[in-house]
Fold:
Amino acid sequence: ALGAAAIAQAVDLRQAALFLIGGLLGMTLHHASFGFTGGWRRFVVERRGRAMRAQMLMIAAASAAFIPLLALGSAAGQPLAGAFAPVGVSVLAGAAMFGLGMQLGGGCGSGTLFTVGGGSARMLVTLAFFVAGALVGTAHLPWWLSLPSLPQISLGGALGVPAGVAVTLAGLAAVAGLTIVVERRAHGSLERVEPAPRRGLARLMHGPWPLLGAGLALAALNVATLLTAGHPWSVTFGFGLWGAKIAQAAGVPVESWAFWNWPGPAKALHSSVLADVTSVMNFGIMLGAAFAAGLAGKFASKVPVPFASLLAAAIGGLLMGYGARLSFGCNIGALFSGIASGSVHGWLWFAAAFAGSLGGVALRPLFGLDGFKPK
Structure:
């Protein structure tokens, strides 16, 4: 509440509202342990797809609102822009790097934020190198964009709203259906969810929250972000901005780099981080997760972190930061918000990141991570 009041005074009420939306995102992510990294790894290693089905439901619910809203172009006087990006080599390479990195780092874009908020010392290392990798990515992005690429492709724009929504939902249903087939072949039936130890208000306040319910809540909060900010939820631009401001303070002339002379990045670099939507929401996510962890009595759990695990966190963070910049986002900005917007690059990102994640799962034992289970 104090943070929202301070941001409202320093910037405006819209930024304060986005900070609070970030707080609700952080609470939801933490109480449901809703992360892409662990869900993908569990499907690959254990052939259990419950988490992936929750992710598909989340994206489906958001897309049913996003694609029609984006076709309108504005809502209540607020111009709306989707998470669209070119479909090219940079997305393919960057997403593969990100997928590999998320398995070594132990969290995706949103997963890193909510676990840091929950007090994870290891994930602080991942976040620090995530920021560093994102900064390096801003230096190299112009070269990557010179490689072969198709323009951005909107399913809603190319096919019309009804067909765009239908194709998106069909694709998400196909992924969910595949997880069901694989899980039933491996185990004979779908995984049963154990009854929660708490019910009613106690469960709402202290968790754990059901994955499907959390997925729908995250979809609703992403729609709220679109309507409030004018664009969907994203995470990693803020990391690159933090890195640029730190580098600038250390005397590195990042303002001379091509990326930081583009209109949007230049404006962000020369303004307060509190004026940046992504940064303000990231702060809210971390504080919201910290609040949820405190309510659940799980803040800063004592977990031994060997050096090899810290090394994996550093390598994973670098790969995620660099890969996210090349591929126009992470699991949130490119996958969730991209597919929900009807952007074809989101599907390419999904395929490439999942392929990279397979490599990351295979490399985890080299760092002693086969028994380590971050979100």
